[in-house]
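Cross-check.
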Amino acid sequence: MLIARDLRIEAGTRTLIEGASFSVQAGDRVGLVGRNGAGKTTLMRTLVGETQPAEGTVLRSGEIGYFSQEAALPELEHPDATALERILMAREIGAMQRRIEEARSRLEGLEGDDRDRGIARFSRLHEEFEAKGGFVAEAEAKRIASNIGIGNDELSQPVTTMSGGQRRRVELARILFAETDVMLLDEPTNHLDLDAKGWLIEYLSTYKGGMLVVSHDLPLLDEAITQVLALEHGEIEAYRGNYSHYLVERDLRRERKERERKHQDEAIARLEENIRRFKGTTEKMAKVARAMETRVDRMKRELVDVQKSGKKVKVGFPQPERSGRVPLAATGLAKAFGDNVVFVDVELAVERGERMLLIGLNGAGKTTLLRILAGVETADLGEVSLGHQATLGYYAQEHEQIRAGVSVFDHMREAARLPDQTLRTLLGAFLLADKIDQDAGTLSGGEKTKLALAMLVASRPNVLLLDEPTNNLDPQAKEALLDALTVYEGTVVMVSHDTDFVAQLMPDRAVMMPDGDMRFFDEELLDLVALA
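Predicted model, tokenized:
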């Protein structure tokens, strides 16, 4: 169980949340919603104790699991731990399994009585593991992992060698396996394909514990939650029902407040008119006017607060310098990680102004290919060539270009040699003007996405390489990005599992990974996008 009382949460000198009180108890399935930068992720971190509130208290009981939207490498009990071991470590049997393996390894160097004692220890550990349901639990962990897109090969892969997306799926499987009383999930559907999302939604809709989830995935918010906490303008307001019901009820509440405020303003205006009329007359009427002034002061203190609609993100890619006819090409690309061959003999040539989509299942090499094209990773075979006057701008889904310890503004200065005022204006368009001096590593996932996009805009590339650019974006920011890409005259190579976004952008061609086959894009491919 979680209980928050009168929380005030600050970021630097700025107050994010004021006077927040709510609880998450067994059976509660709550969606925490709000614009990017409202403070949702900071609130989640506060609830699990990673940060402390400026005021107020958080009461916790039972086992609490927290799934962060960050894909940072977790602290591992053992540096060489595999994905399966990482998942199993969420319960006691994970540590037991590691002790069994260590006992087995030590047997190889033992002889005589030492070996007999080693065998006895191994047998005791094995029997204890079996008695506590270890083998059943391991099968359960593998089932959960499979359902969210972690294959058998990945389960035996060391966590330290995994991509950010793979690590996030492992951490999600770990939280789901951990038998928690309360789960706090921050964007859990990022990096999941359509089948995995469907399974997760069904799983969460039947979860018996308490759940608080931050997500921009509307099907998840509609099907898996029964309550909404809306974070707007630093305040939290509770709603019953799913996300669609919340949208309707929010508008109704706002309309009621606007009507009430209108009546209050009209009543104050009438009283103030009478005050002006009576003040300069008889002493008796002047006394009445003073009484009216007191009443007006009280009414103004009790005015219904009607919040204005928040500012909107404005994304606009400057029309770039014209490149050659083929600004980006690759021949004979191959990549493997150890024994895992990702792809072989991939070739492509992107034409000026083209929108190209990389399609494939999880693990098919889409992100790896994009990283090779961007020059941040090296192919084992083949080469990438840039055409005449081609300049690349790369957006990494894990925000690798955003570094902790470096301010938001310094990131912008590194991205482009533009006047400071121009950079400030650009940050303002992405609603980051009040975070200029903030450590970029402390931004939420949505804010990091906006900063990464602002850096792209500032660098004025004529070839955009975008890896899941809509992850963590709220609906308005996503729409702004779509509008900007629609009128952008440069070249775009993109990875995305966002079916609606891809359908509206409508790419020209698709590269089918891992084979590298190229075909013209049509609506039939949208089903494959959803599976990516």
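The longest strand covers residues 14-24. The longest helix spans residues 243-279. Passed to J.P. for a second look.
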